[in-house]
Design brief:
Elements lengths: L12 H5 L4 H6 L7 H23 L3 H11 L5 H16 L1 H4 L8 H15 L5 H11 L16 H11 L24 H11 L6 E4 L4 H10 L5 E2 L6 E3 L11 H4 L3 E3 L2 H10 L6 E4 L6 H13 L6 E4 L4 H14 L4 E3 L14 E7 L14 H4 L3 H4 L2 H12 L2 E11 L8 H10 L3 E3 L2 E2 L6 E2 L2 E3 L1 H4 L4 E8 L1
Parallel strand pairs: 5-6, 5-8, 6-7, 8-9
Antiparallel strand pairs: 1-3, 1-4, 2-3, 9-14, 10-14, 11-12, 13-14
Helix pairs in contact: 3-4, 3-5, 3-8, 7-8, 13-14, 18-19
């Protein structure tokens, strides 16, 4: 198992005992003479502090960064971009970079990590990267500026191996070793494809509500957003990789656009609610899938009389759902929080019940690369008992002839197929329904969406019918 208790840039205990921080020790002998070098040094100090804070606190990096920028308003947009993208890049390539202290000292390893991250991710701040390169003072890095083709993960690996031939690294090192014991049976080629997708930045996926796709694309184009549709779902839209100010986008403020990953959209399309049905979203969170279910009803019939009840144990997400439903003009959505173990809705009452269960979220690792190294194996092994309990409780709300949909954003069979099989073993009144994978066309009893299949998050879904 990978040790995530410390960063690879940790010093001996004597440094800590003298109250000298790791960040100070790494940067104390750096000679920054030029303006670019001074900026590069300042960025490096900030990035290292944030990196160490994430690793030590185990708090999600996006939360740590958001809090840092909230309290340090001196940073302009360029500063924020360099700090944020460098930090997340360090986590993306951590499986390789954490091994650098084997071949050089910790300060050199840190600056080499910044240089390699900037090179691998093709960051445009060349002057900052050159300054970091000078701080590293490693002849092994001298040739990277002449390396032009790193378009594939294999070529990125080759570049690092050319720099540091003593390192023994592989593509699969970019995820923790324990993960592979909880991943579906796969070939080395399929594993490499997964890792490559996890190390690429996903696009922003959206879902249209009540607007024609051509009109939506034209409106987005006018806002300098190069959007495109997908062949998989008529309401799914790819918004590219550029950051978007949603509150400045009329489509969004008018409720005609919701941000929802393509993999997540698979779940609603598997549910396939009819326009007059009553559905319960048992673990709704902030309601992305709740809104999708209602939108699918309205696509069939603009005067749909169907409705959805959304439940969650947390009140704030339900408040956010109410805001989103109001923005979309969806009036057939209500909320009913979980108050206890008892169902917050009537038994045997619903045409469809969706259980999007709490999970390890390994399917979202490409959006949260830090979580690969903050979590350990228990992120997966602790979940199945809870998932089975929630699924079993929620199933009581399905009426005869109704459907029960179980979903997670995990790629682990123990959280997915095994939970469904355990449920079916004690609920003989439910049977699996055959599904067609929207991205591969495969016909399956249970469906796992892998990130490399359609540039999405990883998801799992199974659909059962109550006899």
């Amino acid at each position: 198992m990978v040790d995530t208790s410390a960063s690879p840039f940790t010093f001996a205990a004597t440094d800590k005992a003298s109250n000298v921080s790791i960040t100070d020790t790494i940067h104390q002998d750096v000679n920054a003479g030029t303006s670019a070098q001074k900026r590069a040094l300042s960025y490096s100090i900030t990035i290292h502090q944030l990196f160490e804070q994430v690793m030590q606190s185990k708090m999600p990096a996006d939360r740590v960064v958001a809090e840092y920028f909230r309290t340090h308003k001196k940073h302009g947009s360029k500063d924020r971009r360099i700090i944020r993208e460098s930090l997340f890049g360090l986590f993306r390539w951590h499986g390789w970079l954490k091994q650098l202290p084997q071949v050089c000292n910790a300060p050199q390893a840190w600056f080499a990590s910044l240089v390699l991250t900037a090179k691998i991710e093709e960051h445009p701040w060349q002057d900052i990267r050159d300054a970091w390169l000078s701080f590293a003072a490693l002849t092994e890095l001298a040739h990277i500026n002449n390396t032009t083709d790193i378009s594939s993960l294999a070529l990125k690996l080759k570049m690092i191996q050319n720099c540091f031939s003593e390192l023994s690294i592989a593509i699969t090192d970019l995820v923790p070793n324990w993960f592979w014991a909880h991943y579906p049976s796969s070939t080395p080629k399929e594993q490499d494809a997964l890792v490559e997708s996890l190390c690429s930045r996903p696009p922003i996926w959206g879902r249209l509500q009540g607007i024609d796709a051509k009109k939506a694309i034209a409106a987005l184009s006018a806002s300098d957003i190069p959007a495109s549709m997908t062949p998989y779902f008529t309401d799914a839209i790819n918004l590219g990789h550029k950051s978007i100010n949603l509150n400045g986008l009329k489509l969004y403020t008018d409720g005609q656009l919701e941000i929802q990953d393509l993999g997540s959209q698979v779940i609603g399309n598997i549910c396939m609610p009819k326009d007059d049905q009553l559905w319960w979203d048992a673990c709704s969170g902030a309601g992305g899938k709740t809104l999708q279910l209602r939108s699918l009803m309205l696509q069939q019939n603009p005067h749909s009389k169907g409705s959805i009840v959304a439940s969650d144990i947390r009140r704030k997400p339900l408040e956010e759902l109410n805001k989103r439903a109001k923005r979309a003009g969806f009036k057939q959505i209500s909320v009913s929080p979980w108050q206890s173990d008892a169902l917050p809705v009537p038994s045997g009452h619903f045409d469809g019940v969706l259980v999007d269960a709490p999970c390890s979220c390994t399917g979202t690792w490409r959006r949260n690369p830090d979580m690969r190294w903050l979590d350990d194996e228990t992120a997966i092994t602790d979940k199945p008992a809870l998932q089975l309990d929630i699924l079993s409780r929620a199933s009581a709300a399905v009426k005869s002839g109704g459907v029960l949909v179980y979903a997670t954003c995990s790629m682990s069979p123990s959280e997915n197929e095994a939970v469904v099989e355990s449920f079916l073993a004690t609920h003989s009144d439910f049977t699996l329904q055959t599904l067609t994978h929207p991205f591969t066309g495969d016909v399956l009893s249970m469906l796992t969406v892998l990130p490399y299949q359609a540039d999405s998050d990883g998801m799992f879904v199974a659909k059962m019918v109550k006899r």
